[in-house]
Specification:
- The protein has about 110 residues and is α+β, with helices and mostly antiparallel strands.
- It has one domain: Alpha-Beta Complex (Aspartate Aminotransferase, domain 1).
- Helix content is about 30%, strand content about 35%.
- It contains three helices and six strands.
- Strand 5 and strand 6 (about 75-80) form a beta hairpin.
- The chain is globular and about 30 Å long.
């Protein structure tokens, strides 16, 4: 399965004003990096992956349709998968804002 190109375009539009945005094809999807850190991904498994941090991940899983990201049977701490159906309207921006808030606190990668 290929990633949702329409979702990738929407993500790209929401992140357009970020000064250090880098886009890379990874894991069959397209990842958006800020400061060298993967922030959100239009996933080849459907929907979007968002890096929100371990501190809030469990609460968001309970409160939303998000699930923990699992890659090759390994849970990815602090990463959530959000189904495309849950990214309508302002929800996409809300999830992107959460991910940007988390990754912007990390030291830039060089």
């Amino acid at each position: 399965m290929s990633y949702d190109e329409e979702l990738a375009d929407r993500i790209r539009e929401e992140l357009a004003d970020e000064p250090d945005l880098v886009e890379r094809k990874m894991f069959g999807g397209v990842a958006f990096l800020l400061g060298g850190h993967m922030t959100v991904v239009a996933s080849s498994e459907g929907g979007m992956m968002a890096r929100v941090g371990v501190e809030v991940a469990d609460d968001l899983i309970e409160e939303t349709d998000a699930e923990q990201v699992v890659m090759k049977d390994r849970p990815m701490s602090g990463w959530l998968r959000i189904p495309t159906a849950s990214l309508d309207g302002s929800e996409l921006q809300t999830w992107i804002d959460r991910a940007v808030a988390f990754t912007s606190q990390l030291p830039p990668k060089t």
